[in-house]
Structure formats: structure tokens, C-alpha cells
């Protein structure tokens, strides 16, 4: 019986006419609707923006007025919803994968060089007016003269007063190094102004100003050269992971520091430069996995 | 990778809003409730968008829809108002045939309303939305065998009801 009827439904098999009539008739049904899909989406966005859900009981006539008021409110929210969505669509997002670098020209003519595994976003519509962008990762900026330029990161906001500088804003740390001009860094209630050769770092939650000894090399990552001075070894391996798109399996290397430079052209060379002086050996496995061992 | 972004959410909405709304209509027979619950389903998906796996969105949508349906609806008599894509009588000039079709249609919509909700839902998902048995099984997290059974019982019930005069 089961097979028989399902053959009928599938359209193959001999079937009585009364079955066929029902099946054909139902297939011709269309579900009624009071709201189009587009309106439903806009209503949903409005509801999301309002941050709360209004429960409506349309069946109870006592609640008709509430329902009417809610409808009016919903229409108003709908405008906000559409507005928010349009704003969302205005946002330009740039994402650079591991093992890649990219140069990006902003609408005002300023240049951004994005390092591997970095994200940047800004509002296309009001960028010329506000000159504000969000950054996660590392980038070198060369800013066209004009009104204040702001870079927002998770740790601090950076206001640029016309200039070039490097921003490092990753989970491992935060550092801004000023190459030319002036840069203002604001983290919470703290702020520092950097002049060429100075850098700002966030230590725990304190914003500190330092002299940057390697200011000439701070943005050399753009040409594939990486300079480190007394830098945590963990951070060095993270940088190699980013530049060569590999993954390390590391022994305990906390408390070890490295000074030196490598370039992003040759993985084995970079590994030798870091591992040999640090007394480590490496073993390249499958799926771009690299095992690091202490030398016995 | 867990999580869907806003663009993906829009894509999910575009492909699944109508099937989910229809699914809720088959259950409730009330388009206003179906649209309200459908909105809440996508609201829930939005709230959980960071935890959701892309390939599980489909069955999650139906699970949420079913739960919200069970929680929200005061059980009431289901009454359908299905419309026709084309009027069956329009191609002929026989008014008798038109009337006959209208009666048939009324009777069928009443029979559908009296059909057990689970069987009806599966039956209409196949007939109206055009989902295959395999797709229905995947959406509702049931076996293809269970879908076949529900289809068979739905059709047997409808045939029985169409053959008796009430």
C-alpha cells in the first residue's frame, strides 16, 4: 500500500482517478499572504533594531488599540530598519588572508598597506566627511593632508594629524609607531601624542610612549622584511604563521626573546634564522604544520 | 567555522522565509499567526547567528518553527483559505463544471483542515512547496520511511473524505 501510493505521488504507476484529482488540485494551491517577503525582512530588521520583541494578540479586540499603536510603532521602526540596512550595505570591508599583503587606496587618496591576516572596514558614504575606519591586524598608513583621520581598534583610537605611521593591533599586542607628522593615540581616558621616531604601546591597560629605535624599519614588512628587537618568541612564530600561512606546534617557549630579521620569501631561511640561535629544531609536517622541538 | 554573517543571514532569509511561513500555515491554518511566528523564527536565528553552523540552519529553522508553534498557538479549529494559481474552470465554458470544481475545492480544504497536523504538513510540503521526500525528511529530522507513511495516510484520509457526503 505504501509503495503503491508513493508511486502514484511520484507520478509513475497506475492510479485511480480520484487520487490523481486530489493530488493535482492540491499542487495548484498557493499559500495566501498578508506581507511580502521583502516587507517581512524589513519588519524583521526593524524588530532587531528595536532590541525587543512586541508580542501581539490580534484575536482579542481589547488589544486592538495596542495592536494599532504597535503597527504605527513598527512602521516607524521599519524606516530605522531600512536605514540601518542601507548603512550596513555602505560599509566597505577589506580582509587580507594569511600569506598575503595588500595595498589599498582610500576614497580620500590616503594609502593603506595591509599586512597578512588583517581586516579593515569603513563607511563608503561618509568616509570623506568623517575619515574614520576600523582596523584589526597590522597596517601602514600614509594619510593625505586634511581633516582628522581616525583609526579605531579594539584597544585604542588613533587620531592622525597628517602623516605616516604603522599600527599593530592584534590579540598579541598593540603598537603605533609614528614615521612622519603627528599621531594622537587615545585609549580610554589616556592619550599620548607621538612625533616621528616615537611609538605607543598598551601594556596591560596602560598606554605608554617609547622611543622607537627601529623607526626606519618599522614598515619594512611592506617589502617583505621583518625586523624584531627583543621580541617575545611566541610573537615571532605567530608572524611566521601569518606570512607563510603555516601552523606551528610549539614547545614551551614562554619567556624567550628574539632579535633579528627575516623576509617572507623563503620559509626554510626564516625558520633557520629564528631556530638556530634559539637552540630549536624544526620538522615540516603535512598540511603546512611545522613542529618545533628544543635541541637536545 | 561556526557562525553566519549578515550577508549569509539575508541569503538564509531569502531562501527559507517562504517555506517556513508555508510550513507554519499548514500547521495553523492562520496566515497572520504563520507570518508572526515565521518572523520570530528568523529573529531567533539572528540572535544565535554567531553559534550556528551553516549546514545545520535548515533543520534548525524547522525545529524552532515547530517549537514556537507548539508554545504559541492556542489550539483552535484550523481553516484554510488556499488560493489557486489558475482557476480550473477558466479553460472551459461549462458553468456546471466551475460549480463542481468549487464544491470539490471547498470539500478538499475542509478535509485538509481535519487532517492530522503532522500528516498534513508533510503532504502539503510535498505538494505545494515541491520538496522531495528526502528533503522533507532532512528538514524535519525524520526518516524518509516516516515521510512515506505520512503521505500515504494523508492521501488515504483525503480520498475517504472526498468520497463521503457530509
Molecular shape of chain A: flat
Q: Count up the helices of chain B.
A: 7
Largest sheet of chain B: none
CATH structural architecture of the largest domain in chain B: Orthogonal Bundle
The CATH class of the largest domain in chain B turns out to be Mainly Alpha
Uncertain parts of chain B: none
Number of strands of chain A: 19
Radius of gyration of chain B: 18 Å
- Reading the helices and strands of chain A in chain order gives HHEHHEEEEHEEEEEEEEEEHEEHEE
A few lines on this structure:
The complex is a heterodimer of chains A (296) and B (166). Chain A is α+β, with helices and mostly antiparallel strands and 296 residues long. Chain A has helices at 2-10, 17-27, 37-50, 64-89, 127-130, 233-244, 267-278, and strands at residues 29-30, 91-96, 102-105, 111-114, 118-123, 132-142, 149-152, 157-160, 164-170, 173-180, 183-187, 190-194, 198-203, 206-211, 225-232, 247-249, 257-263, 280-284, 289-294.
Describe this structure in words.
The complex is a heterodimer of chains A (296) and B (166). Chain A is α+β, with helices and mostly antiparallel strands and 296 residues long. Helix content of chain A is 30%, strand content 36%. Chain A is built from 7 helices and 19 strands. In chain A, the strands form 3 sheets. In chain A, strands 2, 3, 4, 5, 6, 7, 8, 9, 10, 11, 12, 13 and 14 form a 13-stranded mixed beta sheet that branches. In chain A, strand 3 (102-105) and strand 4 (111-114) form a beta hairpin. In chain A, helix 3 crosses helix 4. Chain B is mostly helical and 166 residues long. Chain B folds into 2 domains: 1-85, Rna Polymerase Sigma Factor, Chain: A (Orthogonal Bundle), CATH 1.10.1740; 88-166, Arc Repressor Mutant, subunit A. In chain B, 69% of the residues lie in helices and 1% in strands. Chain B is built from 7 helices and 1 strand; from the N terminus they run αααβαααα. Chain B has helices at 6-28, 31-47, 57-72, 95-114, 117-127, 133-140, 144-163; one strand at 83-84. In chain B, helix 2 (31-47) crosses helix 3 (57-72) and helix 6 (133-140) packs across helix 7. Chain B is elongated and about 55 Å long. Chain B starts with 5 loop residues before the first helix and ends with a helix. Chain A binds chain B through residues 1-2, 5-6, 8-9, 18-19, 21-23, 25-35, 37, 40-41, 43-44, 47-48, 53, 56, 58, 88, and chain B through 6, 10, 13-14, 17-18, 21-22, 25, 31-32, 35-36, 38-40, 42-43, 46, 81-86, 88, 104-105, 108, 112, 123-124, 126-128, 133, 148-149, 151-152, 155-156, 158-159, 162-163.
Amino acid at each position: 500500500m505504501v509503495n503503491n501510493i508513493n508511486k502514484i505521488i511520484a507520478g509513475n504507476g497506475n492510479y485511480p482517478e480520484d487520487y490523481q484529482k486530489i493530488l493535482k488540485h492540491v499542487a495548484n494551491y498557493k499559500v495566501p499572504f498578508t506581507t511580502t517577503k521583502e516587507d517581512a525582512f524589513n519588519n524583521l530588521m526593524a524588530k532587531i533594531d528595536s532590541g525587543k520583541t512586541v508580542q501581539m494578540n490580534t484575536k482579542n479586540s481589547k488589544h486592538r488599540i495596542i495592536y494599532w499603536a504597535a503597527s504605527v510603532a513598527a512602521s516607524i521602526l521599519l524606516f530605522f530598519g531600512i536605514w540601518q540596512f542601507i548603512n550596513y550595505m555602505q560599509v566597505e570591508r577589506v580582509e587580507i588572508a594569511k600569506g598575503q599583503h595588500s595595498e589599498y587606496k582610500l576614497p580620500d587618496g590616503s594609502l593603506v598597506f595591509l599586512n597578512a591576516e588583517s581586516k579593515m572596514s569603513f563607511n563608503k558614504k561618509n568616509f570623506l566627511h568623517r575619515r574614520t575606519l576600523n582596523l584589526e591586524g597590522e597596517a601602514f598608513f600614509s594619510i593625505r593632508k586634511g581633516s582628522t583621520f581616525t583609526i579605531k581598534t579594539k584597544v585604542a583610537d588613533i587620531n592622525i594629524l597628517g602623516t605616516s605611521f604603522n599600527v599593530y593591533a592584534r590579540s598579541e599586542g598593540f603598537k603605533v609607531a609614528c614615521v612622519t607628522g603627528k599621531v594622537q593615540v587615545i585609549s580610554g581616558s589616556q592619550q599620548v601624542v607621538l612625533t616621528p621616531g616615537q611609538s605607543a604601546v598598551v601594556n596591560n591597560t596602560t598606554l605608554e610612549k617609547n622611543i622607537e629605535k627601529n623607526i626606519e624599519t618599522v614598515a619594512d614588512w611592506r617589502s617583505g622584511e621583518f625586523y624584531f628587537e627583543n621580541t617575545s618568541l611566541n610573537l615571532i612564530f605567530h608572524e611566521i604563521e601569518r606570512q607563510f600561512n603555516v601552523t606551528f606546534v610549539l614547545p614551551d617557549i614562554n619567556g624567550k626573546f628574539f632579535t633579528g630579521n627575516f623576509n617572507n620569501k623563503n620559509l626554510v631561511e626564516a625558520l633557520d634564522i629564528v631556530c638556530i640561535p634559539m637552540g630549536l629544531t624544526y620538522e615540516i609536517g603535512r598540511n603546512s604544520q611545522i613542529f618545533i622541538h628544543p635541541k637536545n | 567555522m561556526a557562525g553566519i554573517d549578515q550577508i549569509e543571514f539575508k541569503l538564509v532569509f531569502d531562501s527559507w522565509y517562504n517555506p517556513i511561513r508555508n510550513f507554519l500555515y499548514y500547521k495553523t491554518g492562520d496566515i497572520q499567526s504563520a507570518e508572526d511566528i515565521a518572523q520570530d523564527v528568523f529573529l531567533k536565528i539572528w540572535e544565535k547567528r554567531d553559534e550556528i553552523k551553516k549546514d545545520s540552519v535548515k533543520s534548525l529553522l524547522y525545529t524552532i518553527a515547530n517549537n514556537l508553534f507548539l508554545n504559541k498557538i492556542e489550539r483552535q479549529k484550523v481553516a484554510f483559505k488556499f488560493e489557486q494559481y489558475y482557476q480550473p474552470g477558466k479553460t472551459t465554458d461549462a458553468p456546471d463544471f466551475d460549480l463542481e470544481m468549487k464544491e470539490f475545492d471547498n470539500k478538499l480544504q475542509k478535509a485538509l483542515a481535519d487532517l492530522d497536523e503532522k500528516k498534513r504538513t508533510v503532504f502539503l510540503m510535498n505538494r505545494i512547496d515541491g520538496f522531495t521526500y528526502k528533503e522533507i525528511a532532512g528538514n524535519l529530522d525524520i526518516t524518509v520511511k516516516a515521510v512515506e507513511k505520512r503521505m500515504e495516510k494523508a492521501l488515504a484520509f483525503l480520498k475517504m473524505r472526498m468520497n463521503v457526503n457530509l
